[in-house]
Amino acid sequence: xxxxxxxxxxxxxxxxxxxxxxxxxxxxxxxxxxxxxxxxxxxxxxxxxxxxxxxxxxxxxxxxxxxxxxxxxxxxxxxxxxxxxxxxxxxxxxxxxxxxxxxxxxxxxxxxxxxxxxxxxxxxxxxxxxxxxxxxxxxxxxxxxxxxxxxxxxx
Length: 155
Prior knowledge:
Structural class: mainly alpha
C-alpha cells in the first residue's frame, strides 16, 4: 500500500515545493509572510507523518490476528472534493491570499507525508500492508491485508 501512496506523496511534495517557490518569486508576499508559510509547512509535515502512522496502526489492529479485514467503500467521501471544486473558488475571494496560501500549503504538507508515516509503521511492525479491491466499477468491498515480512509462505 505504501508504494502506491508514495507516488501521490511525491507528487504532493513536488507541488508543495513548486507553490512555495512560486510564492517566493512572484513577490506578492513579503519576507514575513513567507516565513509564516514556512512555519505552516513545518508544522504540517510532522502532523502528516503522525496521521499516516496512526492510520497504518489502525489497519494493522483491525486486521490482526486473521491478517485481513473487509469493509464497504466510502462513496460519500467523493462528495467533499466535488463540493470544494464547485464552491471553493467563491470562498477563495472571501479570505486574504495569506490565509488561503497557508491553508493550502498546510493541507498539501499533511497529505505529502502520510505515506512516510505508513512506511515508518510498516518498518516498526515488520509487516507489509496492502489493499485488495473488488474488480467491479462500483466496488462492493475493500480488503486490507497485513503480511509479515519474514514469514515463509507455501505458494
